[in-house]
Amino acid sequence: MTSRVKEFGDLEAEFNAYVGAIVYATMVTVDAKNRPRTRVLIPVWENVDGEPLGWLATYHTPVKAAHLAGNPHTNFSYWARGNNSVAIDATAEWDNALPTKERVWELYRRTSPRGAGYPLGNFWKAPSDPELHVLRLKPWRVQVIRGADLRSRIWRADGG
């Protein structure tokens, strides 16, 4: 059974629990011919003014950059044994300002939500490392599915 919620806060606890336990998400982008491409990554998420906002510390690879330049829409899918899952439809844009990188470095360090994240120092020297790039993820739809009974709840940024 699927229901819609008006406020992200109505499913935020379940979102945080699942994302924090699953950690790894499959990110989907599409190329200029609308062919999908997936990769497994670890984004972090926070609640800003009652809405989810995601961040992805990543490398600026030619494929990912070209896909997002042509179509900034992406999807992140989390799934765990037992069928607890989260699907996030979002737009992505590069935000490599140093204050953003410092904020994202801290979100990964403290894990956001709890359990999601890792020490970015494993891959980059510091927030100022030119190899560190950040994608700002603006969700427009979030679906949380509880595996025990397949209850599905959906939040949309437009309230619909």
Structural class assignment: alpha+beta
- Described by the principal axes of the CA atoms, the overall outline is globular
- The amount of helix comes to 10-25%
Helix-strand pattern: EHEEEEHEEHEE
Please indicate the percent range of residues in DSSP E strands (runs of 2 or more): 35-45%
Unreliable sequence segments:
none
Biggest sheet, open or closed, and with what strands and sense?
A: 9 strands, mixed
Give the averaged pLDDT, no decimals.
Answer: 96
* N-end to C-end Cα span: 17 Å
Q: Oligomeric status of the shown chains?
A: single chain
The number of helical runs is 3
Tally of strands: 9
- Rg calc: 15 Å
How is the topology of this model organized?
Elements: E1 2-5, H1 12-22, E2 25-30, E3 36-41, E4 44-48, E5 51-58, H2 62-70, E6 73-79, E7 85-94, H3 98-110, E8 133-146, E9 151-156
Structure characterization notes:
21% of the residues lie in helices and 41% in strands. The chain is an alpha+beta fold. Strands 1, 2, 3, 4, 5, 6, 7, 8 and 9 form a nine-stranded mixed sheet that branches. The two termini are 17 Å apart. 28% of the residues are buried. The mean pLDDT is 96.
In short:
The chain is of the alpha+beta class and 160 residues long.
What are the salient characteristics of this protein?
160 residues, globular, alpha+beta, 3 helices, 21% helix, nine-stranded mixed beta sheet
